[in-house]
Each structure stands twice: as structure tokens, then as C-alpha cells.
UniProtKB/TrEMBL annotation, chain A:
The lineage of its organism: Bacteria, Bacillati, Actinomycetota, Actinomycetes, Micromonosporales. InterPro entries: ABC_transp_permease (IPR001851), BCAA_transport_permease (IPR052157). This is Branched-chain amino acid ABC transporter permease. It comes from the Bacteria. One of its GO terms (biological process) is L-isoleucine import across plasma membrane. Belongs to the binding-protein-dependent transport system permease family. LivHM subfamily. The chain crosses the membrane at residues 22-41, 48-67, 73-94, 115-136, 163-182, 211-233, 239-259, 266-284, 290-309. One of its GO terms (cellular component) is plasma membrane.
From TrEMBL, chain B:
One of its GO terms (molecular function) is ATP hydrolysis activity. Belongs to the ABC transporter superfamily. GO terms for biological process: L-amino acid transport. InterPro entries: AAA+_ATPase (IPR003593), ABC_branched_ATPase_LivF/BraG (IPR030660), ABC_transporter-like_ATP-bd (IPR003439), ABC_transporter-like_CS (IPR017871), BCAA_Transport_ATP-bd_LivF (IPR052156), P-loop_NTPase (IPR027417). It comes from the Bacteria. The keyword Ligase does not apply. This is ABC transporter ATP-binding protein. PROSITE patterns: ABC_TRANSPORTER_1 (PS00211), ABC_TRANSPORTER_2 (PS50893). Pfam families: ABC_tran (PF00005). It comes from Pilimelia terevasa. Residues 3-235 form the ABC transporter domain.
Amino acid sequence: MDVAGLLRDFPELTLTGLEQGAIYALVALGYTLVYGVLKLINFAHSEVFMIGSFAALWTWQGLGFVYDAEAAPLGSFLLAVLVGVIAAAGASALTAVTIERVAYRPLRKRNAPPLAFLITAIGASFVLAEGIGVYTHRAPYGMPRLLQPEVVFQLGGWKFTNTQLIVITVTLLAMVALDQFVSRSRLGRGIRAVAQDPDTSALMGVNKDRVIFLVFLIGGLMAGVAALLWNILPIGVAKFNMGFLIGLKAFAAAVLGGIGNLRGALLGGLLLGVAENYAVGLFGTDWKDFVGFVLLVVLLMFRPTGLLGESLGRARA
Amino acid sequence: MLLEIENMTVAYGRIEALHGISLTVGEGEIVSLIGANGAGKTTTMRAISGIRPLAGGSIRFEGEDISKLRADRRVVQGIAQSPEGRGCFPGMTVVENLEMGAYTRRDKAGITADMNRVYGLFPRLAERKKQVAGTMSGGEQQMLAVGRALMARPKLLLLDEPSMGLAPMLIQQIFDIIVEINQQGVTVLLVEQNAQQALSRSHRAYVLETGRIVKSGTGQELLNDSSIKDAYLGVA
Ligand SMILES: Nc1ncnc2c1ncn2[C@@H]1O[C@H](COP(=O)(O)OP(=O)(O)O)[C@@H](O)[C@H]1O
Ligand SMILES: [Mg+2]
């Protein structure tokens, strides 16, 4: 155990953790929203993220963007981001909505038991991952280096990089926007109402199918944004099974924060990201994925409903 | 007739809860549906609102067959319900609950006017606009549920046991308010176990027993009916 190393690298580990955690949080939103409304763990959500990544990659390739970030002027960087985010968010949202339409809605109309939904979710996840796997020959694809990470400002020992600032800012903005939408808009109230009491919502004139469509759409958009941000990180590689680990972690983050709770997703994501990176400092990189799930299990022993523990319906979002 | 139910059958799985009931509600009326626990009153209300499918028979509203219409469309057509028990959204404030009642409407000015009308009927709610419904008393939540149904500006208001769990003084009050709402032009179908109160304020009433309508008549007729007295009014 390398306590000195953790202390030495504490600022960097924290910031990297927040950066990665922010992305977990964005993906976690999709799990939490769908769970809040349908009480369903949409395991195929990890593939929604993966497809967003490939959509951005293929769009960039199609448009002939170069891999060299250093030479690229700001204008072409912004254009690449804009194109990338439209492609990723669009493809992810479309995937999410299609999964709902093709896999879950028919089950809902037949009043299928929860187990049928569960196995369908797992099945949809496999179909999408394997489909892309076959199509891409299961190879990893390096993402265009849109941005060279560099320190943009320093506060004592805390060095903030451009990617960290972008990822964290975008995530917080997306969170605030969603929070406002859910708590203030008419459709947002509809989402909360269905999450809380579907029958009474129907008595109010809420169209449940539309609300369900909406949460898949929002979850997909957020996963697409997350996919793009993930690609901006130095890790950026697209692979057919990339969704698995991130999806699992995002799901863990959602449970950690209290599944069904939007703010819980943010809290859980950030916490998980930071904890993982402290584990890297303490025990080495190999322990990164181990620690996240130990954290989850231990926390659930003490707070079975997660940190914030309320449902989407009850949350004064 | 505003509402015509013909030979309606509703089942939960293989168990039939309503065995072909027929009833009508005319425009401007207060019609009560009384019956013991488990008779099928709530099932009837849920079927009218469309959150329970029909196994047979039909529901007509303003002459149109709505038996297959989606629940949310029925609200647009003019049917609102205050459901049995605490049907409020507990995590939402009083204002948000009322706004949920107006979910299908877009006329901002009308919604504001109706909200004030609800506050007029239930001054208690006006004092608690920002309070989260889940923290209010049972009586207050009941008022909120009734007020929320009014926010849809319905032609037909379905009230499923609005007096349940209320203190005797509040029971009087809520029945007075139901009459007042009716006098403002809203047709009311009222489900009650409190038969005495319901019958004395209703134009007409039906008695439901284990999924069948066994009697109907004007409120006064049923109040004076000896078998009704024995079974539901609990008086000698
Ligand atoms: N969700 C349900 N599943 C199965 N049976 C039900 C359900 N709801 C009601 N029932 C049955 O239907 C019958 C009528 O119930 P209900 O309409 O709630 O009666 P009431 O409102 O008059 O008390 C009862 O026998 C009840 O047990
Ligand atoms: Mg009942």
C-alpha cells in the first residue's frame, strides 16, 4: 500500500477521478431514469453508450478528420466536437428509443413479468454488442485525438487540464439542464408522476408510453454526450465490448447514489470515479475496477437504498 | 345521457369482478354508487377512466363509444377522477399536484382561474401551496385529490370514496363541496361507503353487490328502502 504515493498524487488522482466519474454519472442517468419510470434495469444501456462512440468515430472518419490534435486549429476542433456530439447523441438516442420500441414495449403490452424484461434487457445488450463486434471484427479503434491534454491553470498543487475542465463542465451543465427540465417543465412533471404512480398519472391524462419514450430518449442523449467526452479523454478507444465495464460502473454509480434519483447518479458517479483513482494511487492500476465494486457492496450494507435513496418520483428533483 | 354503461364486465385475471353492470349518468346529476367493501365500486371507476380494460360490454360518453379509448384521451374528452385512497403525488407540492390535474390543458389563463377556484373551494390548500403533499394530513390530501380532479375542468367528475378516513366534520364539508361543485355545472359520479350522506345528496343512486347492480332509484327512494337501511345505513 502506497500511502505516500496517494498523498503525493492526491490532486491529480482527484481530478482524474472527477473527470471519469462525471462520465459514469452521465451514463448512470440512463439507468436511473428508466428504472425510475419502469422499475427496469436496462442492461442494454451500456450498448447505447458504445454505439455513440462508434457513431462519432465513423462520422469523423467519413468526414476525413485527421488524428493530429496539435496541429488542428481551434475552429476545426470545435467543428469536430460539434459533429461528434450530434452523431454520438443522435445515434445513442436512436438506439435507446429503438430498444424500448422493439424489445420492451411489446412485453409491456402483454403485461410480462419482470423476469421477462430482465432477460430481454440482457439479450438486447448481447445482440447489440455482438452485432457491432461482428461488423468491426472485434478490433479496437483508436479515436481521433481531438485534444491534447494540457494543464490550463494551476492552483497550488492542483493542475487542471483542458479535458478535465471540459468534461466536468459539460457534465454539470447537462445535469443542471436535466434537473430543471424534470422539476419545472410539464413533461418533466409527467415523468415524475409516472415514476411515482403510473395509474394516477393516467387519470391525470399523462400518456405513459410518451413518458417512457422520453426517458429512453433523454438517457440515450446523455449516454451519447458521455461517449463523446470519453473519446476526448486520453483513453479513447472504441471497441464493441467497451460498454460492458463502463455500463457496469455507471449502473454501480446509479445504485450507489440511489437508483431512480438524478442527483444520486451524479453523486454516485463522481464518488466512484474518485474512489477508483485513489485505489490506483494506493494499490496500483490493477486494483482500479476492483475497488469500485467493493465500495458499492460495502456501502449498500449500510445504506441499502444508496446514498440519496429516494425514487425519481419522490425526488424534488 | 352523459355516461352510459351497458353490460360491462371487468376481470382481474380469471376472476370476474363485475358481471355485466349497466348504469347511466345524466348531465348535471349527482349519481351515487354504493356497496360494501369488495363489491366492485373502485373497479367500475377504474374501468370508466380506462385504467382497467373491459372484458365485455361498453362505455359511452356523450354518445360516443369510449370502451377502447386510452386513459389519457378520456381525460381530454372530459372525464376526471379522484381515485380511492391517497392518490396525491406525495413528492409534489400542492401547486404541482394541481398542475398535474391540468396536465392535458394548455390554456394558462384558464388553469390559473381554475386553481383559484379550487383554492376558493378548499381554503386549506391555499394556505399550503408549497407544502409537499406527502407531509399533509389525510383530510388535506383528500381535498387535494378532489381539487386536482377539478383542474382538468371535467364534464364528468368521478369521486371514489372522497370521505374515506376523514373526521366527521370534514365529511360534512366535503359533501357540501361536492354539491357546490355540482351546482357549478359538473356532473358527478360518486362512490361511497358512507351511504347515508351520499344518498341524501344524490339525484339517483345504484347499489352494487358482488359485481352486480341489485337496486337503483332516486336518492330519497333508496334512503327509505328498508333493505338498504338494514344493509348500508346501519340504522334501526
Ligand atoms: N388488483 C386486483 N387484483 C385482483 N383482484 C382485485 C384487484 N382489485 C380488486 N380486486 C377484486 O375485485 C373485487 C372488487 O374490488 P373493488 O372494485 O376494489 O371493490 P370496492 O371498491 O367496491 O371495495 C374484489 O373482490 C377485489 O378483491
Ligand atoms: Mg373501493
